[in-house]
Design goal:
Layout lengths: L1 H12 L5 H23 L3 H18 L5
Length: 67
């Protein structure tokens, strides 16, 4: 239950007014999520953080908030 609450809180925190702001917040969230998943599955935390950060930044950079 604690993990689900943390995931929801982090997902809601990934917002920004500019594409750059969204990329930074998405990258940070992705890095944290990637490291967490890597740790749970027994893989390298650094690699998980790098992959998750790249995916998160790219995903949130491309996101267009509703007008």
């Amino acid at each position: 239950m604690k993990i689900a609450t943390l995931v929801v809180a982090l997902a809601l925190a990934a917002c920004g007014d500019s594409p750059g702001g969204r990329a930074v917040s998405g990258g940070l969230l992705g890095a944290g999520a990637g490291a967490a998943v890597s740790g749970i599955t027994g893989h390298s935390l650094g690699t998980g953080a790098l992959i998750g950060g790249g995916v998160g930044a790219g995903r949130w950079r491309a996101h267009r908030p509703p007008a």
